[in-house]
Design goal:
By secondary structure, the protein is mostly helical. It has one domain (about 1-190). The chain is built from ten helices and no strands. It has helices at about 1-15, 20-30, 45-50, 55-80, 80-95, 110-120, 120-135, 140-160, 165-180, 185-190. α1 (about 1-15) packs antiparallel against α4, α4 runs antiparallel to α5 (about 80-95) and α6 packs antiparallel against α7. The model is unreliable at about 210-215 (pLDDT under 50).
Length: about 220
């Protein structure tokens, strides 16, 4: 019977993850698909570049919240195993949403929400490090990948016991997702061409991507 609950938790978490606030906000309030502007990514950073910090903040908080809710409810009602399944499923939903042609975001904020439920103190410590990386490099992508990998390393160091095995596996999978979704960013970082955010300019970018370009960047 447990397998039924696990499948149900995974499915519901995926559907919750598939709800993309950046697409809802850009389409309903601005009548524009965020995936056609800026970097083409349906996430917080591109919302900041294209529509400004207010839209970016709402997007970030909603993405974090859906990660928290999916894992917390699954864990509360069906146990830790269901929580681990929901952790993976909600991020898969965000990255490859059924509602939007399987073209979503990169899963960073949703992963952050997931990690808050499992390791809140560690997660906020890593978040502080990521903020520092952004301040130093102005590259959100580098901070996101560094944070994901650092979270995995920290859990492996501070929680090495068998009791935390599933947690380490889940966080490892999420770290792989984050790095994989930033593969184009990695190429640009290596080439020295990665986009950087500006702390001085509040200019909103409204540059539409070329038609037919559906690759996440």
């Amino acid at each position: 019977m447990d397998i039924v609950y696990y499948i149900l938790c995974g499915l519901l978490a995926y559907l919750v993850g598939s709800i993309n606030p950046s697409l809802i906000l850009s389409n309903s309030l601005m009548s524009k698909d965020i995936r056609k502007y800026g970097s083409g990514n349906a996430g917080t950073t591109n919302m900041l570049r294209v529509f400004g910090w207010q839209f970016a903040l709402v997007t970030f908080l909603c993405d974090v919240l859906k990660g928290c809710i999916a894992v917390a409810l699954s864990r509360h009602f069906c146990g830790d195993t269901a929580g681990f399944i929901a952790s993976i499923a909600v991020v898969i939903g965000h990255n490859w949403p059924v509602y939007y042609g399987f073209r979503g975001g990169k899963g960073v904020a949703t992963t952050f929400g997931v990690l808050i439920i499992w390791q809140p103190a560690l997660t906020f410590a890593v978040f502080a490090v990521a903020i520092g990386i952004v301040a130093l490099t102005r590259m959100v992508s580098l901070a996101a990948m560094s944070g994901a990998v650092l979270s995995l390393v920290a859990v492996m160091i501070f929680y090495p016991g068998e009791a935390y095995l599933m947690q380490r596996i889940a966080i490892g999978i999420l770290a792989v997702f984050v790095v994989f979704q930033h593969r184009a960013n990695i190429k640009r970082i290596i080439a020295g061409k990665e986009n950087k955010i500006s702390f001085k300019s509040s200019t909103v970018i409204m540059k539409e991507m070329p038609k037919g370009d559906t690759n996440q960047k």
